[in-house]
Amino acid sequence: xxxxxxxxxxxxxxxxxxxxxxxxxxxxxxxxxxxxxxxxxxxxxxxxxxxxxxxxxxxxxxxxxxxxxxxxxxxxxxxxxxxxxxxxxxxxxxxxxxxxxxxxxxxxxxxxxxxxxxxxxxxxxxxxxxxxxxxxxxxxxxxxxxxxxxxxxxxxxxxxxxxxxxxxxxxxxxxxxxxxxxxxx
Length: 185
Fold this sequence. Notes:
Elements: H1 18-21, H2 27-56, H3 65-84, H4 90-94, E1 97-101, H5 109-119, H6 124-130, H7 137-153, H8 164-169, E2 171-175
Antiparallel strand pairs: 1-2
């Protein structure tokens, strides 16, 4: 029997639950990652556009426009599918966000490609809405920013705080921040 002066024994720490391991990152971090990804994609698109225009001998920006768009769509798909099947893009690694399937397993290429196609919901509705009308650059930017804000905020209505394109694709973004309490000082 322990003496009354002895410190009380601490209960053993229980292992983290599966739901805490699969916690979604905050919306702020996901959107910061999204913005960083956009800056990185600028370089990918620039190099891919240069390769396309050099290989097709395109001299004017509107020549081969649809071919260039299809090429950039395919290059972007390759970029994202390749990184997502490895769990993270560079931006996701920076913001400690990882992509897994709904059970926490690594994403396979078919599911990553499905996520890529569904992720275009971020852009297609505003692009389709502005097609019939000649809008100024400011109006296009406002329409796009408004839709992105609405789409991002819709994740708040999901029980698991996931974006709708992740739910449709059977994927999820999880928080993989290192445990600060375990770091050495």
